[in-house]
Amino acid sequence: MIDSRPADRLALGFPVYSADSHVIEPPDLWSSRIERRFADRAPRVVRSEDTELWVVGDNVRMAVVGIQAQAGRRYETGPDREKITKRGFYRDFGVFDPDRYVHDLDVDGVAGALLFPSNAHQAYRCVAGDLLAAIARTYNDWVIEFCGAHPDRLKAVAMLDVGDVAAATTELERTVAAGVAGALIPILPLPGRRYDQRAYDRLWRAAEELGVPLLMHVGGNQAVLGREPTIDLVRHATKDLHVQASLATMILSGVFTRHPRLRVGAVEFGASWSVYLMQQLDRVYAGPVRSRSLPPGEQPSDQFRRNVFLSFQEDRAAMLWRHVIGVPNLLWGNDYPHAESTFPRSIEILRRDLEGVSTKDARRIAGENAVEMFGFPGIAARHGRELS
Amino acid sequence: MVGHDRPGIDGGARSWRRNDIVHIEFIEAVVNSAVVESLSVLVGDLADDASARGVVFHLGCVRGGLEPVGRFEPVGRLDPTIADLAPGDGLKALTRLEKVLAAVERLPRPTAVVLEGPIGSVGLELALIADLTIASPDVVFYVPGPERGFLPGMSLYRLVRYVGPGIARQILLHRTTIPAQHARRLGIVDRIVPVPTEALGAELSRLLSLPPAALNLARQMLTEAGPMNYAEAYDSYKAAQFHVLHSLADGSTGAAPDAQYSAAEYVTAPFGAGPDGGDDNADDSASVVRRLDDAGITGAVLYPANVFRAYGRPPGADLTALLSRYNDWVLGLCAGDEKRLRPAVLLDVDDPVAAASEVRRTAAAGAAAAVIPLFPHNEQRYDSPRYAPLWSALEQSGLPITLHRGTCRHVGADARPFDLALHRVEGSDDVFDQVFDALEGSYARLAVVAMILSGVFDRHPGLKVVIVDFGLAWAPYTLMRLDEQYEVRPERAGPPVETNALSGALASHWLPSEHAGFQFADDERPSDHFRRHVFVAVDDDPLGVALLDILGPRNILWAGQLRPDAAVGPPRRMQGLTAEERATVERRNAVCMYGFAPNGVAG
After folding, report:
1. What is the tens place of the pLDDT at every residue in B128-141?
2. Secondary-structure percent of chain B, ordered helix, strand, coil, rounded to 5
3. A187: nearest CA partner in chain B
4. Using a CB-CB distance cutoff of 8 angstroms, which residues of chain B are in contact with residue A76?
5. Among 3.40.605.10, 3.20.20.140, 3.30.300.30, 3.40.1130.10, what is the CATH number of A17-25+94-377?
């Protein structure tokens, strides 16, 4: 069973920040908040058998309420593991309550966390157009409020509908002004709307100018709109394929050549895959390609290291390859409260994966990179002595 | 199901059941391939037979009207002609036997052995794995010494566990027999009684009264007490066994220290993949050997430089015929110098049963490896059970699978198979072509991940996959992700399930237990299957070499990749290896995988 006592926040000798944690949306988030004209089609809870789930639009199943709250399950065996019912809620986590949330961060020894949705981005595969944009706006307003309770420890990620680039840009500007630290975009947008298209330049430019990273998170794929998800462990074990392809597309098509200050994060995919991708991109680009979009003398791997960063939970190979990937590009996350989460053993797991890593690199990977990337000013000041 | 009231006779063993105890008796002294097969069937039935409370093996006993086994001929001795079999066949027979023994060792119910008279090495193996061994005073174990050309299977490993390496060395090298009393002192035999079958009932009843969990725990603790785990020792044994068999076949021992084998070289066939065919620069045996000599390569596995793109053809007889034609040509080419040139044949897997036939045909003609497409079809991934006949044929033929760049099936709407198709836009798409080129290795990863997570290697423990020309750096992430996903989502293992095919609200998030697929053994993780069955052939990859702690030399083969059109010059050697690692990567692994002669051939 989970020990709910706070852990030593400086157990590693420096504060730890999570670049990938999650809220779980309240069941009535959209039904109670969305603009009235979308009320009939917004995500709403229906009961099916013994389960509550959100349906959206024309009753498309979006997500099961609460099932993502499974932190700690992977470490349990026997009856405790079986307590995870099909409805989730292994434990009454602090996912709806910011005060409880920071308490759980304390239990995990984590000083601060960047919060992604658990369910809102499932809408990418369910609906498009004005409804999707409204779902995103509603979520953004709520998560900004949620993090506002502890602005020094919780940072929000906004969700963008990139189907309308101008509207997405406006929403990015609005939410950044309200305090979000980054913005979620689909790993792959709608079919035929790939990120190499010039239509996105407006959004890329805004992100550059605002200094906020754009984030591709596991599970946010708009190209599968209308498809029922497949339960397939093979796909889960190769889920980095799409983010690799999208990042490769952006690099090879010159997105980062045109927007050299744009930062894009691949979140929860692990990090060590990037070494092979960089190798292969350089190989291909050195070969007989028909068009070249990178400045003379620059290789795809140069842009990858300059413009892309990666979050991971457990990736020992990435730690060993950290100087190939680039220490500033590696950000740790606890994925709380999902099934893959390192909660409540984050410190123990970090200590294991960081074995042999210099303290200087370790504190960057496990904390400072996130502090700089997403801005935890309050906590940075509080831990100024430690960070220095 | 093992026979009930009356004895069943199959090959060299028979079985009967009494009071839900299954008895298996060796009715022939010699354990040859047929007996191994028979035992495999009997033990396989036992594993599925929940009603059986225990199993007893009888060696040297005389039963029910059958002719008595000769009293001076050790019963349960390995057929010495196994050493005369081709290396692949010999290893296969021994591998199958070991699989049977391992299955007995893991049966979740008491096992006993009853021995009388002279006993061969298989009897010793059974005694070493059983929970109870009862012997008559005249029992003598005859352990084949090294002069017979093969180690006594994993009995040496088990013997060392019992008696320590010193006494095991004495037995193996100097004594080669173990009388009953000595075996009793060593702990191999539990009881010595004049008529073992009469003592069996009382002794076995004690074991039967134990809770199964207690018995299994005791076994586990005993197994784990040793310094090396079973899988490590088994891999070591198989590699050693292969070397010994080859040494015998070649009439020499030891490998030339400077032999260097390439897991991938390329030859030009006299016909290409296109309809026009014809290639004036076709290779022959002499031209390939000259290139190897120039590069200082002892031997090589040969792949086509101009036929892989045939995998872009639509399904049908044309594809099958073209690949078959290439196979005949490359088999003929390699026959010109079979010690140095080893042919990889190409398979059309659209019809797995026909592909299995082609495996058997080409293996009989000397094939050393078999190429299957990197990715077959969107609806027919390699976790599909449709490929079971092909995996069986490959396993039985001892041919490793090759997954090679440039072999995806590019057919019609599946022009970029699997989910990468989502990244393509209409019309000419140069960006996508580059992305696909960069990510082509993902299909090799997808193939082995699908095979591992669906339990292909559990059902086909002799199957191996060699991934050629994609480097090493993809592997550490693959290993990590395999284990992480299985640990977190074991209930999602199994064939893909479209959620709309499931009932209930949970469809999109939870796989009901009735859909659960392959579950790994408690002490195994998916990465164990990768390390045991998946190999990577590369020329050099400094970043991959930097992480040898994660994927070590045992899984790496060197590939010189002398394409006919490449500039003449020395091939790239892997850098950063110790001499021992280099010997493994450049020589030992190729010898074991492809059947090169370990003594090498002067260049």
Report:
1. 999 999 998 878 88
2. 45, 15, 40
3. B423
4. none
5. 3.20.20.140
